[in-house]
Known about the structure:
By secondary structure, the protein is α/β, with parallel strands linked by helices. It contains ten helices and 18 strands. A seven-stranded mixed sheet has the order 14-13-12-15-16-18-17, sandwiched between helices. A five-stranded mixed sheet has the order 1-3-4-5-2. A four-stranded mixed sheet has the order 6-7-8-9. Helix 1 (73-91) packs across helix 3 (136-146), helix 8 packs parallel to helix 9 and helix 9 (303-319) packs across helix 10 (338-352). It is globular and about 70 Å long. The model has no long low-confidence stretch (mean pLDDT 95).
Amino acid sequence: xxxxxxxxxxxxxxxxxxxxxxxxxxxxxxxxxxxxxxxxxxxxxxxxxxxxxxxxxxxxxxxxxxxxxxxxxxxxxxxxxxxxxxxxxxxxxxxxxxxxxxxxxxxxxxxxxxxxxxxxxxxxxxxxxxxxxxxxxxxxxxxxxxxxxxxxxxxxxxxxxxxxxxxxxxxxxxxxxxxxxxxxxxxxxxxxxxxxxxxxxxxxxxxxxxxxxxxxxxxxxxxxxxxxxxxxxxxxxxxxxxxxxxxxxxxxxxxxxxxxxxxxxxxxxxxxxxxxxxxxxxxxxxxxxxxxxxxxxxxxxxxxxxxxxxxxxxxxxxxxxxxxxxxxxxxxxxxxxxxxxxxxxxxxxxxxxxxxxxxxxxxxxxxxxxxxxxxxxxxxxxxxxxxx
Length: 388
């Protein structure tokens, strides 16, 4: 199958899966979202990709080297989707941990711009590239071939619509609520609705890891969302658990999960900033504090503002950790790299006048693989700190 082509401005294909507009010759005749051949400035074939002239990420590289790799797009998709699911099922054995895990992690699975979460019998496909949106029917067909009887829900985040300059022709139909398990705890989930795909698969292992530190301790779960950290803490035998979130909808679902699990958790509808200040003003502290806010840095333009927010939040959180306690703090902002995040956390410790020791660097589970040439795929980063 012949594909349209775009030319690089140099004879070298850049490292990583993204090629920016400044690296590509103008290609007015190529349709937005098209699967293209990428050629260097000397007209030599160097790979295949998805092209969008309206995006700063002009080409998302799907393969390098073999010209025949994407002669048949359905076979190229099947090969990569099958490889991604085989890793999760056979190597990682994620089905033994529950119903909720990431099936395709975009650049980490050589499908840059495509995220697929496995939520029970439903695949939620999150499109971050126009090219994959154009291939959505083929993607659904291949996923259902790999898991017969499954449903497929497509969604396009609002920020992606702006960056990729397109509006979906249809919106996903509302899915019924289903109860799904993660590490033995059941949660009510609405696939494809609410935040992200309907579930934060990236914190699966961290919820269990932090919960293991909570036996006999007082615990504060800030920005708790579905309550995963709080419920693992309660199951591990925490003496007292409080979970805080400003979103009433997710908090109500978390409360129902707690009732089903028989967990003794106090669910508090409040802003995390205000709640921490109130605790500090009352001289209260907790032995384990979890801080997992939503994305505070959307891109380079908001980097400094986001750093200030992370600094303020972490300083307040450190202020309510009891001496000898633990803080598990996280950032899901891809634009803020790990060294910068740790620097902000250590700066917060100085502001709060607390002595800290870094026990462990945390990140997303292995169902979020990373390519060495694309460190940004490590968007979730966390620090487990002993606080004196």
